[in-house]
Amino acid sequence: GDGGEGEAGEWWREQRGRIEKDVHRTDRNVPIFQGEDAPHPDPNSPFADVGTNVHLEQMKEMLLTYNEYNKELGYVQGMSDLLSPIYAVIQDDAIAFWGFQKFMERMERNFLRDQSGMRGQLLTLDQLVNFMDPKLWNHLQSADSTNFFFFFRMILVWYKREFAWVDILRLWEGLWTDYLSAEFHIFIALAILEKHRDVIMGHLKAFDEVLKYVNELSNTMDLESTLIRAEALFRKFQRLVEAVDKKQNFPGPRASSSSQAPSPQSQSQTQTPPKGKETETQQKVISPELRNLLNRKVEVLPRKTVAQKGDGMPGN
Fold it and tell me: CA-to-CA distance for 69 and 185, rounded, in angstroms?
């Protein structure tokens, strides 16, 4: 169909056009999506003269179905990247659709109109780098790079365009287990930064340089060593948090009522150390965002939030 009349019909046709363009650009180097051995069913498609294949059409149907299923969010560019590995492995459109729908529950925050979900994850990465490696954070700050926007694409589609296809299948299956953390993808980002720390600190002095360098890492990174490094960094983070918590819970020195000394815990609540400037007397502060990195429970956005911040059907 053509989506009907009015604003809703116009929205549907616009969504269908987005899906059409995105699917024809998604993973065309993967054998299942290669070739155009079938005539295109829509003569008005920009790809009508090129043709299509059965798997591309299945992908389009699933994304259109999801667009209807989740009218609060709608289809947003990048979702085809999240569906293609699931469909290519399962090759059953019904099972693949529900697998994709479940995956999207945790990924919805990446596709909100106001980008609040993405900003939140980049802020968490900012805090994590500052907590784990203040010297690197200071350098990135001097290069106007602590917005970590150069990791936007990686986090948006879970490194889909950074690693080889077979590596993505392995990476995602690992991330889906939530074995150490439901936010373990943030530690993948930290591992990539730490791997390239010397180059970043020694040679990259401005945001454009950092952005260019990180973008050019695409399809050059080794997954195995990245995962090993990410797990080691998580374990280190875990130990640091435990150490800070123990220190804060340790009883302070006794003092007379006239000269009551604040406890380490009260100090930590009132004195926030400057980022990257920690000394022995200034304690690291565990923000709620950092503490959430230890959580293995996947956070799913309330439908009300998606309806307010999604790019879904008008008046929905």
Answer: 27
Look up the pTM and report it: 0.86
Are 170 and 149 in a shared domain? yes
What the block records as the tokens of 112 is 């909100």
In a domain, 279, yes or no: no
CATH at residue 107: 1.10.8
Residue at 264 is within a domain: no
User: Is residue 125 located within the same domain as residue 170?
Assistant: yes
| DSSP labels, 212-256 | HHHHTTTTT--HHHHHHHHHHHHHHHHHHHHHHHHHHHSPPPP--
pLDDT in tens, 278-300: 443 246 789 999 999 999 999 99
CA pair distance 110, 230, nearest whole angstrom: 22
109's tokens? 């925050």
| Total domains present in the chain | 2
Q: Which domain holds residue 235?
A: 116-242+290-297
**233-255: pLDDT as tens digits:** 999 999 999 999 988 876 655 65
- Distance from C-alpha of 23 to C-alpha of 27, rounded to nearest angstrom: 8
Give the separation between CA 84 and CA 28, rounded to whole angstroms: 10
